[in-house]
Amino acid sequence: MDYLGCGGYYKRSSKDSGCFIVQKFSDFTEKILPFLGKYPILGVKALDFEDFRQAADIIKAKGHITPEGLEKLLIIKAGMNKGRRV
After folding, report:
1. 81: left (phi over 0), alpha (psi -120 to 50) or beta
2. C-alpha span between 9 and 20 (Å, rounded)
3. pLDDT tens readout for residues 30-81
4. What is the pTM of this model?
5. How far is 4 from 28, CA to CA, in rounded Å?
6. Alpha helix locations (H) across the chain?
7. What are the boundaries of each domain within the chain?
8. What's the pLDDT band for 27 if we cut at 50, 70, 90?
9. How far apart are CA 4 and CA 21, in angstroms?
10. What fold does the segment set 24-83 form as a domain?
11. Rg, the chain, Cα only
């Protein structure tokens, strides 16, 4: 949080390790994406990150408001994580 200047650390219970959450889209596009571009994710998760970056670009350009843009987002989402064919 201090290094990136955004987000917060939240714990759901005493057993949970917690999670880092960024709520502002501008913080995500201006701070998190550049950080992860500089220090890339390795392995198969790098493919998911690239999909996520594409989705963020569509949203940033307001493409998600159009039916075509929304369809692109749904296609990207369907191919991420367990939906990815390697």
Report:
1. left
2. 5
3. 999 999 989 988 988 899 899 999 999 999 999 999 999 999 999 999 988 8
4. 0.76
5. 10
6. 25-27, 33-38, 45-60, 67-78
7. 24-83
8. very high
9. 12
10. Endonuclease I-creI (3.10.28)
11. 15
